[in-house]
Structures are given as structure tokens and as C-alpha cells.
Amino acid sequence: MKTKTLYISILFLLFAISVDAQCAMCRAVLESEEGQQTAKGINNGIVYLMIVPYVLIGVIGYVMYRNKKKAK
After folding, report:
1. Which residues, at least 6 apart from 22, have a Cβ–Cβ distance to it below 8 Å?
2. Which long-range contacts (CB under 8 A, 24 or more apart) does 36-41 make?
């Protein structure tokens, strides 16, 4: 079972896709700019802010799992 989870995790890491996280209004304003550097920066910032809660929940879940396993 552990090897299956490891393989699935590696699969998800290898096949990452690019995501656009801008809302429609932000996209409309930023698309008018030449070069799209500001749009790329805003998009990267939004994705970064979306990742933080998931990482925190993962760490808390891991700590809870580890504490339950030690209690047994």
C-alpha cells in the first residue's frame, strides 16, 4: 500500500500543469498590457497564496497522524 501511494505522489509531481488563477476582471485589465509581465506576477502571487492553506492543513494533519500513531 505504501508503494502505491508513493507511485501516485510521484505521478502527480511529474505531470504538473500550468494554472491560471486570475479572476475575469483582473485578467481583462492585465491583458491590455504589453509583455504580460505584470499579469504573470499577479498570477504567481495568487497561486502562492492558494498553496499556503493547503500546506498548513497538510502539516497539521501529519502532526495529528503522528501523535495518534505514537499513542498506540
Report:
1. 30, 39, 42, 43, 46
2. none
DSSP state of 21: -
Rounded distance between C-alpha atoms, residue 4 and residue 39, angstroms: 39
- Above pLDDT 70, what percent of the chain? 85
Q: How far apart are the first and last CA of the chain?
A: 20
20 confidence band (pLDDT: 50, 70, 90): low
Please give the Cα distance from 30 to 38 (Å, whole number): 7
Beta carbons within 8 Å of 42's beta carbon, 6+ residues apart: 22, 26, 30
In the chain, domain spans: 2-71
Distance, in Å, from the CA atom of 63 to the CA atom of 14, rounded to the nearest integer, reads 26
